What we know:
The protein has 202 residues and is mainly alpha-helical. It contains nine helices and four strands, in the order ααβααβααβααβα. Residues 70-105, 106-141, 151-186 form the EF-hand domain. InterPro entries: EF-hand-dom_pair, EF_Hand_1_Ca_BS, EF_hand_dom, Recoverin.
Amino acid sequence: xxxxxxxxxxxxxxxxxxxxxxxxxxxxxxxxxxxxxxxxxxxxxxxxxxxxxxxxxxxxxxxxxxxxxxxxxxxxxxxxxxxxxxxxxxxxxxxxxxxxxxxxxxxxxxxxxxxxxxxxxxxxxxxxxxxxxxxxxxxxxxxxxxxxxxxxxxxxxxxxxxxxxxxxxxxxxxxxxxxxxxxxxxxxxxxxxxxxxxxxxx
Length: 202
């Protein structure tokens, strides 16, 4: 029990020290909230051989249960945004920093996060092809449409007009930032990757 308490104290101090508001991965939780999230992380990894590793499948299950995010493709993208270093699993600090962005992050934190989710090949831009893939995966196809891809292509063109502020045919982070600052609804225009405000983590 003393070891667990010492680990918690060290973890909280590390999070508060190394993940201040101006860091690359800010943690905007209080010490008490970080401790609670560490307990939740440990609960999620209960029964696993390594209690400091949250595997992708378990993360997806909890994301679905807690935040009602149901799109498989977007859940994988969210996991990748949380998984710094592309390890294939989440460490406690990945989990806490990711939730900080989702639950208490600033608009700028959330813009960076959403852009990262939407930038499928991590090249710093959201292309027409990436928009098409994102919108096609999140939209429910209606069987009455002759060619559902045509409707998605029309949506891509509409989204591109709103997001591509410098008119170069692709969306950079500054483009995305400017579009969201002008219209906050553009933050999740390519898919739901933030939790509904009425849900909470258990």
